[in-house]
Amino acid sequence: MDRIRTATHVKRIASIDIGTNTILMLVADVASDGRVTVVRDEHSIARLGRGVDSARRIVPETVDRVMGVLRSYLEIARTAGAERVVACGTSALRDAANRDEVLQSIRDRIGMDVRILSGDEEAHLTYFGTISPLKQEATQGAFGVIDIGGGSTEITSGTPDRILYRRSCDVGSVRLTERWWKIYPPLEESVAAAKKDIHRAFRDVRPDTGSATWVGVAGTLTTCAAIDLKLEQFDRTAVDGYI
Fold first, then answer.
1. Backbone angles phi, psi at 196, to 5 degrees
2. How far is residue 36's CA from residue 170's CA, in Å, rounded to a whole number?
3. 167-192, pLDDT tens digit by residue?
4. What percent of the chain lies above the pLDDT cut of 90?
5. Of 16, 176, 186, 240, whose Cβ has the fewest other Cβ atoms within 10 Å?
């Protein structure tokens, strides 16, 4: 690591993704030549978006729960020597009518500024973050990325250097579960209603697929991979790249 730091200019950055269901943090050394070396990779289920689809508000107890995760992440980032901490929020914060109050509370209590990403920005960042390790192997050709989150789903396609199509739809695992699946196993009519929501949301989605290599990211798809692999415990190394 010291050799990398002296050869090129490197910044250690902590990036926090405040999602509808989970809060993620990546601490990484980012070199001036584009290389990224992961230092810490954290994952917590905070359920920020609980009840937001119906009430359009984030309740105080949820804010407290999220605050606890963010405090711990800040401590981890400082201990790891991060020079900068960047925090972004996605679907739940986009939807919540009291998002400004929530952001101010986070700012006042732990000194963290959170930027809310638009659906297009989320699709953009997810696309290039996903294909970054892949485009080193394929400088030509096309890629497609599907990101199924808790509150929204982003579908993006393009080349290694340019996005040709992107779309963010308000369909996600938490949103549909709270809206339609009140009991388990869900009733047949609830499953049918959820399918109608999905078809309605995606009926106008027309990505430029061609011969694209498609990649799925986030918890829904990695969980599906873990189930197919019959994993008793989640293993990211096993599901990463699983076809």
1. -65, -40
2. 31
3. 898 888 888 888 888 888 888 999 99
4. 34
5. 240
Structure tokens, 222: 């990695």
- Fold (topology level) of 120-239: Nucleotidyltransferase; domain 5 (3.30.420)
Amino acid making up residue 71:
R
Find, among 144, 139, 140, the residue nearest to 164 by Cα. 144
For the chain, the domains span: 2-117, 120-239
- Tell me whether the omega of the peptide bond preceding residue 133 falls within 30 degrees of 0, making it cis: no
Query: CATH fold of 2-117, please?
Result: Nucleotidyltransferase; domain 5 (3.30.420)
pLDDT in tens, 95-121: 899 999 999 999 999 999 999 999 999
Does residue 228 register a pLDDT over 90? no
Nearest to 161 by CA among 181, 136, 186, 194: 136
The reported pTM is 0.83
Closest CA to 73 of 14, 11, 150: 14
Domain 2-117 and domain 120-239, same fold? Reply is yes
Residues 15-51 as b or e (16 or more Cβ within 10 Å = b): bbbbbbbbbbbbbbbbbeeeeeeebeebebebbbbbb
